[in-house]
Amino acid sequence: MEYVYAALLLHSAGKDVNEDGIKKVVEASGAAADEIRIKALVAALEGVDIATVLSQAAAVPIAAAAIAPVAPAHAAKGEAKVEETEEDKEAAEESGVEGLGALFG
User: For labelling alongside 11, which of 48, 49, 54, 64 has CA 20 to 30 A away?
Assistant: First the structure.
């Protein structure tokens, strides 16, 4: 997580998000820098417009807040749903055990 924060910090400061920059930020925070994770992050961010992604991510909480008022209307049915999900979990566990048996003969 600290690597992503380092990349965001570099981006917000107007610096290039590269391996050397991320490594310096992580080490400045007092954490040990893992070269493999840094390389993986830089490779994953290759060709990504961070500003666009951040602006799209900022819109998500607004959409979630618009859906939130619908949830209390279904609160009365909450107890029945809990029972159904427990039954579903038991059925899923049983089918999972059967699947393991097929794997090991």
Answer: 64
Q: Which residue has the higher pLDDT, 76 or 89?
A: 89
Domain ranges of the chain: 2-48, 74-104
Q: Using CA of residue 17, residue 18, residue 21, residue 24, what is the dihedral sign?
A: positive
The answer to whether 45 and 21 have CB atoms below 8 angstroms apart is no
* pTM greater than 0.70: no
Q: Tell me: the pLDDT tens digits for 41-62? A: 999 999 999 999 888 887 766 6
Express as a percent the part of the chain with pLDDT over 70: 56
Q: Which CATH architecture has domain 2-48?
A: Orthogonal Bundle (1.10)
